[in-house]
Design a protein that fits this description.
By secondary structure, the protein is α/β, with parallel strands linked by helices. It contains 13 helices and 15 strands. Its EC number is 2.3.1.179.
């Protein structure tokens, strides 16, 4: 391995050779990028289940192929379908993984799983005259379909079998940082020399009644139900919460040396990963911003870059009053008055939760490749406490070589990624 294939710490440089994506804006990289840079919103009224008496009735839903009205599709099934599509697109672009064998491990970021109300009600009906816990357990005996659907590691096992990845697939969840955590684990496996290739995926399909109610009880969701497209308003003064969404992002990662050896087209580099935990509160960040600031600085240090090297920041940018305030604090602490432009994809696609870190990594690489910054839409009234350049409402042409992509999760789980242009 030559010096040109290693980073400032002597580790293998990690190349990105394939991208795949599904969001409320569409299926595939081309449709998503066109809609994103056009400033189009994918937020709509929920049609999947009744929303009467709910405080929030909007989301960034993704309709699956051949999904008919009234179909009961569980969150794990949605995750698997969208993750498989994103993986197929990424592998096809990378030109690797033919004949059902991918020469590396799978790292899958996905939400926790549990029985949902349709399954619970089905078991209660099956219990008949004994609808208590004991009766429900008895009714579930022998239901292999339920076990396989709602086994957390089951999705990863089926995807690994389908695409022929090597070793045991790793399934993980770190709240809103999950997709970025999956990428970080894949990068570190390549840097340690444990693999020359890996595929990292973040996927989420959690728009169901129970999840919606739980986030609503936390007062985390926007209630701007009358205008779904205008509901997600990161960094704007009237923001009132995030909008739940679904999707998947996949990246094929390889050591730069391995990618070059097989003649692959390098789309970009994954230069640095930084994480920092904060045990301050289940949902809120510590007001001192220490974990957010630390994750940003750790990512820059891991990449061997200075703050001035970053040309654009793909924000976590949820649109909650708390997050956007803390992200601004972190930006000013790290970048000072010379902060680069920052914008939030979530203004258009909503918060894809466990998928967000991977989806936004895909968008960050497209930003570098296409030389165009996606906008933050619905930016009408500036918040005087947020003095950042948020690329308001309209996409902007810009030559960018390095992007910082931030993911700040509930429970203080924070991961930042530094992505770079492909080598000359």
């Amino acid at each position: 391995m030559s010096d040109a294939d290693t980073d400032h710490l002597g580790r293998p440089l990690v190349a990105v050779t394939g991208l795949g994506i599904v969001t409320p804006l569409g299926w595939g990289v081309a449709d998503n990028w066109a809609a994103l840079t056009a400033g189009r919103s994918g937020i709509r009224r929920i049609r999947r289940f009744p929303t009467e008496h709910l405080r929030t009735t909007i989301a960034g839903t993704v309709d699956l192929p051949n999904e008919a009205p009234g179909d009961v599709v569980s969150a794990p099934q949605r995750v698997e379908t969208m993750a498989a599509f994103a993986m197929e697109e990424a592998l096809s672009q990378a030109g690797i993984g033919a004949k059902g064998h991918f020469p590396g491990p799978l790292f899958l970021g996905m939400p926790p799983v549990e029985f949902e109300w349709p399954q619970r009600l089905d078991l209660t009906r099956a219990a008949g005259a004994a609808p208590g816990y004991g009766g429900i357990v008895a009714a579930a005996r022998g239901r292999v379909d339920l076990y396989e659907t709602f086994l957390f590691g089951g999705v990863g096992e089926r995807l690994a079998d389908r695409f022929g990845t090597e070793g045991a697939p790793i399934s993980l969840t770190t709240a809103c940082a999950t997709g970025a955590s999956a990428i970080q684990l894949a990068v570190e496996a390549i840097q340690r020399g444990e693999a020359t290739a890996a595929i990292a995926v973040g996927a989420d399909g959690s728009v169901n009644p129970e999840a919606l109610i739980r986030f609503s009880l936390l007062s985390a969701l926007s209630t701007r139900n009358d205008a779904p497209e205008a509901a997600s308003r990161p960094f704007e003064k009237s923001r009132d919460g995030f909008v739940m969404a679904e999707g998947a992002g996949a990246l094929v990662l390889e050591s730069l040396a391995a990618a070059r050896a097989r003649g692959a087209r390098v789309l970009g580099l994954l230069l640095g990963c930084g994480e920092r935990a904060d045990s301050f509160h289940r949902t809120r960040s510590n007001p001192d911003g220490g974990a957010i600031i630390g994750a940003m600085r750790n990512a820059l240090a891991d990449a061997g870059l200075a703050p001035s090297d970053i040309g654009y920041v793909n924000a976590h940018g949820t649109g909650t009053p708390e997050n956007d305030k803390m992200e601004t604090l972190g930006m000013r602490a790290v970048f000072g008055e010379a902060a680069p432009p920052i914008s939030s994809n979530k203004s258009m696609i909503g918060h894809t939760l466990s998928a967000a870190g991977a989806v936004e990594a895909v968008f960050s690489l497209l930003t570098i490749r296409e030389g165009r910054l996606p906008p933050t839409i619905n930016y009408e009234v500036p918040d005087p406490a947020i003095t950042l350049d948020v690329v308001p409402n309209v996409a902007r042409d810009a030559s960018v070589r390095h992007v910082l992509s931030s993911s700040f999760g509930f429970g203080g789980q924070n991961v930042c990624l530094v992505l770079g242009a492909p080598p000359a």
